[in-house]
Amino acid sequence: MLVTGGAGFVGSHIVDQLVAGGASVRVVDRAEPAWPNPAADYMTADLNDPGVAAAATRSVAAVCHQAARVGLGVDFGDVGGYVADNDAGTATLLQAMHRNGFSGRLVLAASMVVYGEGVGVCPGHGRVRPAPRSAADLAAGRYESPCSACGAPLAASTLDEDDATDPRNVYAATKLHQEHLCAIYGREAGVAVTALRYHNVYGPRMPQNTPYAGVASIFTSQLRTGQAPQVFEDGAQRRDFVHVSDVARANVLALTVGAPVVGPLNVASGQPRTVGAMAEALARVLAPALAPVVTGRWRLGDVRHIVASPHRAAEQLGFAALVNFEDGMAELAATASASAAAAL
């Protein structure tokens, strides 16, 4: 099996689980592996290079495509890098698979960001997709997304895979394009393509101190350096935090389950929490004296709530998240403490 991006956060966990299950694993990643598995075969090379993609995809039974530039970026000036790595890199991979006559399964690391804002319930209009939040509303502390029909605040609800996509930043647009390219390739080549739409992944090996890190990484970095977690808006934004070991297991299931699954699947815990609750859970373990600070700051383009149902993954893959929020946050905090101690 080939794992692209297998030296990274999620990819390295997938490699470990595949090897533990007896699979022969090839990894291609432009980065040197920080957590190399001695039983895997590593190619430290750029997947955007057609020659590298051709060699990596030769004689493999399945492809698990994790390689991507992640995060929201700093500003629109990052668009070229995201398109080069996510769109063009995926195209180069698929072209190589096509030329090599690949006939196995393709599992794509997709993302919940393709949905844009979540789904809300309006008192007058029922279940609707919210309108984009305006800078004026955010600056005035009106954080809840308005109904697109009447402007009333919405109560959060749950998305499923049949809901319309609505990417609202460059990263999200490239992740959706990855899905489109892979689906088109799958139809033309007769290859089963599963797109796993990850929710907020956290856990061991999570990157620290980068502009592309998720909120969990940002909070742990702040706490490790003696700063109280800085929580944007009012901290009531709802997310689904899913442990990296569960995400890796979803990939292994998609690669090995008896009947391949075609189409997108949400990979989530099914137990959403607020961003403020995550900050509090991490602070309790890492620095109890540093209570999270709700700043009221905001970023235009951030979504208010994004929670999706994992039921289809349960039905079609037999996937259910095993790591609960409290245990996962305690482990994350302990890992951050150990990393800080090792750096001294």
Can you give keywords for this protein?
alpha/beta, globular
Protein model, in words:
This protein is an alpha/beta fold. It is 37% helix and 16% strand. The chain is built from ten helices and 16 strands. A seven-stranded parallel sheet has the order 3-2-1-4-5-9-14, with helices on both faces. Strands 7-6-8 form a three-stranded antiparallel sheet, with no helix packed on it. Strands 10-13 form a two-stranded parallel ribbon. α1 (9-20) packs across α7 and α3 (79-99) packs parallel to α5. The longest helix has 21 residues, at 79-99. The radius of gyration is 20 Å and the shape is globular.
Task: Summarize this entry quickly.
The protein has 344 residues and is α/β, with parallel strands linked by helices. The protein is 37% helix and 16% strand.
